[in-house]
Structure formats: C-alpha cells, structure tokens
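Ops channel
N.P.: pipeline sanity check, posting one input/output pair.
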C-alpha cells in the first residue's frame, strides 16, 4: 500500500446517510493516493446481494450483524494499512465502536445540514431501506429523529468536517483541499 506523508493511518469517515462519505472519501483517497474502501460496497460484494435485499430478507438486525463482522475485518487490516474508509450511517452507532476506530486511525465526522441531507437522499432514490418509499416530509422527519439518536456516537469522532458542499466537481475539489488542511492540523 502506498505510504504518503499526508496520511498516517486509516481514515474512518462517519456521518449520516447522504453526508457525503462516499463522494468525499473517494476523492480524498485519490488525492492521497491510498485505497478507498466503501463499507456498504464491501458488504454487497461479500454477500452478493444488495443492502436492500439484505434488509428485505433478514431485517435490519441481520444487516447489522454482517456490517459489524465486515467492519471488524477491515479495522484489523487498518492496523497496518493506509486507506480511506466510508462507513455506513449506522455503523458506528453501537457502544465501543467509535472508541475502537479512534484507536486504529483518524475518525472524521462529516457534518451537513438536515435539508442538504434530505435533498441528497431524495436525489439518490430508493437504495437506502431506512428511507425508501418515503416522501420529502417523511424523509426529513426520519433524518431528524435518527440524527438525535446517532449524534452521541458521531460526536466522538476526533475531528469534524463540513461536508455540505459536494454537489458538483468544483465543490468536491474545494472540499478535498479543505480536507487536506484538516488532515494537516489533525496530525499536528
Ligand atoms: C444506513 C446507511 C447506509 C447503509 C444502510 C443503513 C444507516 O449507508 O449502510 O442502508 O443505518 O444509516 P450510507 O450511510 O452510506 O447511506
């Protein structure tokens, strides 16, 4: 794996669905020239079925078990690896997970306003079972309710990054630059 002076270990991106973990993570990994890992994609590859199907067939409880197993194998790899990993919105929302991730690498909470998150979730269609089939008002109510429960976990991240502007290539580039500055100060 590439070694790069700007990165000192794995970078774990946490945050709500639609906070930009995948979009920003991919672009940051490219800038740092380290691998990018998307936990949802790993789950789908390993299970050979979509997240939606996992939810449909085994419920959220089964999804969480699979998610936890795959996260463990990835964080073990993170002991020696340099990579950027986008977690699922609910991945770190169990006792002890944020603490473990912060021991292994840098945890970054991607923060975006509720309205921006809702906008992104509506644009991305029905791939997320927790908001699938809901209209704008319902999605907003779900986001607000879930956010309240999840903030105590997200707020344990080592640093917070404003991910509200990732709507086009130019904004992604500017956000990557800002992320690099954040990395410099985080590793200071
Ligand atoms: C979930 C978020 C999704 C995916 C699953 C559950 C959640 O990932 O893991 O649909 O509980 O918030 P993204 O945050 O990448 O959308």
């Amino acid at each position: 794996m590439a070694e790069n002076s700007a990165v000192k270990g794995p970078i774990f991106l946490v945050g709500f669905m639609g906070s930009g973990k995948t979009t920003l993570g991919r672009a940051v990994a490219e800038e740092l020239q380290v691998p990018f890992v998307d936990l949802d994609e790993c789950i789908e590859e390993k299970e050979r079925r979509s997240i939606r199907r996992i939810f449909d067939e085994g419920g959220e409880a089964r999804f969480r078990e699979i998610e936890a197993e795959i996260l463990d194998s990835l964080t073990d790899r993170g002991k020696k690896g340099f990579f950027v990993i986008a977690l699922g919105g609910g991945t770190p929302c169990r006792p002890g997970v944020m603490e473990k991730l912060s021991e292994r690498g840098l945890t970054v909470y991607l923060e975006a306003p509720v309205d921006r998150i809702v906008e992104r979730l509506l644009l991305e269609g029905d791939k997320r079972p927790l908001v699938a089939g809901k209209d704008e008002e319902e999605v907003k109510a779900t986001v607000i309710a879930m956010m309240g429960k999840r903030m105590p976990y997200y707020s344990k991240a080592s640093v917070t990054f404003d991910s509200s502007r990732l709507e086009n290539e130019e904004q992604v580039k500017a956000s990557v630059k800002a992320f690099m500055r954040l990395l410099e100060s985080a590793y200071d």
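N.P.: looks fine end to end. The pocket of shikimate-3-phosphate is lined by residues 17, 21, 40, 51, 88-90, 128-130 (CB under 6 Å).
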